[in-house]
Each structure stands twice: as structure tokens, then as C-alpha cells.
Amino acid sequence: MSKASDCAKRIKLLAKNTGISVNKLLIDCKISKSLIYDMEKRSAMPSADKLLKIADYFKVSVDYLLSGEDTPKAPPARDPEEAEIDSQITGIKYALSSLDRDAIGDLTMGEKKDVLKFINFLKSQRPDAKKKEGESGDAP
């Protein structure tokens, strides 16, 4: 097994233990989605810049990613509801290309919940949504 594939395994394990997908990690770090595949199948080691972004994301050292010998600082356990909200927000961030993505990342969890409530409210105000309510007998 190559050092690159060992590193990929550690990255995948950190993602799993943190409750996020590898895809979300790569999107958040603005790294190509093929990174893990390239590490596992082509033994391609990512640049120091990419490793540093991943290490910072998980709050571990690059040494840990490369060798597994540095004890990582345990990332805080994620509340499943928060993980779901973050997942939905990530989808929104990338669906709206004109949105300032850095601003979304700085929101508190309460603010993220409010954003989702507002989006759901907006969806409920669409003419087709109101028509469906009337058909189902939910309208007053």
C-alpha cells in the first residue's frame, strides 16, 4: 500500500468520524473531487497546499495526514441535525453561484436554521405551492 493511499484512508476516516462526506470536505476546501481517487488508485500525493487545507479543516497536523503518527486533536462531535443543516446549506451555496460563499460559512447554526426557514417560506409562497395546498385541502 502506498503512502498516498494510507493518507487517503486517514482523510476518509477523519471525515467519517466528523460526520461529513468526503465530497463536502473537498468542496469546502475547494479541492478537486478526484483527489481521493487519485491518491488511492494512482498513488498521487497531493500538494502541500492541499494537505494543509485538509489538515486545517480537521484541525490536525499535516504530519498526521502523512504518517498517522501525530495524535490528532479530536474534532468536536457533530450534532446530526447540524450536519444535515450544513449539508443543505452546502447545496444552497453551490446552487446560487452569485452568492458570497464565504459569508455563508461564517453564519452561526441559529442563523443557518433561519436561512433554511426563510428558503422554505419562499418556496411556500410560489404560485405552484399555493395551488398544491388548495388541491390537498390544506388551505383555509
UniProtKB/TrEMBL annotation:
Recorded source organism is: Ethanoligenens harbinense (strain DSM 18485 / JCM 12961 / CGMCC 1.5033 / YUAN-3)
Q: What is this protein called?
A: Helix-turn-helix domain protein
Q: Where is the HTH cro/C1-type domain?
A: 31-65
Which PROSITE patterns does this one have?
Answer: HTH_CROC1
Against Gene3D superfamilies, the record matches this protein to: lambda repressor-like DNA-binding domains
Gene Ontology molecular function, alphabetical: DNA binding
Pfam families linked to this entry: HTH_19
**InterPro entries per the UniProt record, alphabetical:** Cro/C1-type_HTH (IPR001387), Lambda_DNA-bd_dom_sf (IPR010982)
SMART domains in the record:
HTH_XRE (SM00530)
